[in-house]
Amino acid sequence: MNRPHEELLACAVDAILSNICVLDGAGNIVAVNQAWRDFASRNSAAVSDGFVGESYLTLCDAVVGDDAPVAAAVAAGIRGVLRGDIHESSHNYPCHSPSEQRWFSVRITKFQGDDPHVAISHVDITDLMRASVVKDAHQQKLLRLQKLYAAITEADQVIYQSSDLPVLFTEICRIAVDLGGVTMAWMGEPNLETERIVPVASYGTGRSYLDGIFISTRADAPEGLGPMGIAFRENRTTINQNFRVDANMQPWHGRSTPFHWQSLAAFPVRRAGAVIAVLVVYSTEANAFDQDEVLLLEKLSANVSQAADAIAIAQQKQVLEQRLKQSEETYRTLFETVRQGVVFHDKEGKIIAANPAAECILGLSLEQMQDRTSMDPRWGTIRPDGSPFPGELHPAMLALKSGRPVYRSEERRVGKECRS
């Protein structure tokens, strides 16, 4: 991964609302995102750069009082991940300020492969914890919100490391099911030639539902009136809370029956503001997607959209760099093979490069010419009548002085004709 691409991905991470930091193999904080820096500056006047350079383990070990058990558990989780005993660890903890009560969920995950770094993300779960006081009727909702928070946290880390859009789409579907609590998730991309939305990634129970599915992008086709087509055409979230009674879902009732889905939601994924894909999620419960869950899923799709922008910019940059490289190679070939002598001077008039034709015509190697100027008396330049030709009137000197091209000259140097 080239550095500009890494910087683009870092910008995408800075746009994520979760507080994220990266630890090295010794537990020292080596990088943080903007949300982390903002939180640190709001809550500790003495912090200038989000504790970068500090040991996260030392900070945890120094905690005393009521927060010490949680800090010790977090430190133990970090040490376990760093040692390789576990791949990840997560804890919920209170972090109250003088003005409000707050709770956060911390998730500790090792980077993939042999990379020793560890990613730590803190998600504000204050609303979730406050809602936990509501009994019975809200328990299932809380569970779903927890899963969605976990899904967003995991997705944030996947987005940070992703440089390939198809792979990212597959991972987002997996996260939505494994952590987000939906039954099945898939991504569809529009095919403008066939006017269809084509599945490109899926995960969960019921993936065979997508085999041969027909979803139109057109508003005048029955297969284009479901949430998927509307989300694509109108660039907005579309919810269906009762799959079975909605007439617009009739084209897909038969193939969906074996999976007992009751509700679904479709979210546009954008690149540069235009819809490039649709994320669709399913639940076996009717009215499964309330306002809180929709907002979280919209946050997930928005983060994927930001990643799509960053990946597109990086890919465009790679294309431009490749074209520049090809252009440079073409120029180099032309420079080396053209029959006319070509000599480059720096801003002081010194020769810095010359092609083989110039070396042949002038009877000097590039090494012999380098650092000479046209003022050098060794050139012995003369006019056609045999009189001396002053070096300051040489075209290179005139061009440097005037800043304009000089196309003709009366000079003549003693040289030889070279043929390829």
Q: What layout of secondary structure does this protein have?
A:
Blueprint: H1 3-14, E1 19-23, E2 29-32, H2 34-43, H3 56-61, H4 68-83, E3 88-94, E4 103-110, E5 118-124, H5 126-131, H6 139-161, H7 165-178, E6 184-191, E7 196-204, H8 227-234, E8 238-240, H9 253-256, E9 263-271, E10 274-283, H10 291-337, E11 343-345, E12 351-354, H11 356-362, H12 366-369, H13 395-402
Antiparallel strand pairs: 1-2, 1-5, 3-4, 4-5, 6-7, 6-10, 8-9, 9-10, 11-12
What does the average pLDDT come to? Answer: 85
Write down how many β-strands occur, each being a DSSP E stretch of 2 or more residues: 12
Helix count, per DSSP? 13
State which percent range the strand residues make up: 15-25%
Distance between the termini: 43 Å
Task: Give the radius of gyration.
Answer: 32 Å
Strand order of the largest sheet: 2-1-5-4-3
The shape, in one word, is flat
Can you characterise this structure?
This protein is an alpha+beta fold. About 40% of the residues lie in helices and about 20% in strands. It has 13 helices and 12 strands. It has helices at about 5-15, 35-45, 55-60, 70-85, 125-130, 140-160, 165-180, 225-235, 255, 290-335, 355-360, 365-370, 395-400; strands at about 20-25, 30, 90-95, 105-110, 120-125, 185-190, 195-205, 240, 265-270, 275-285, 345, 350-355. The chain has a 5-stranded antiparallel beta sheet, with helices on both faces. A 5-stranded antiparallel beta sheet has the order 7-6-10-9-8, with helices on both faces. Strands 11-12 form a two-stranded antiparallel sheet. Helix 1 (about 5-15) runs antiparallel to helix 10 (about 290-335) and helix 7 (about 165-180) runs antiparallel to helix 10. The radius of gyration is 32 Å and the shape is flat.
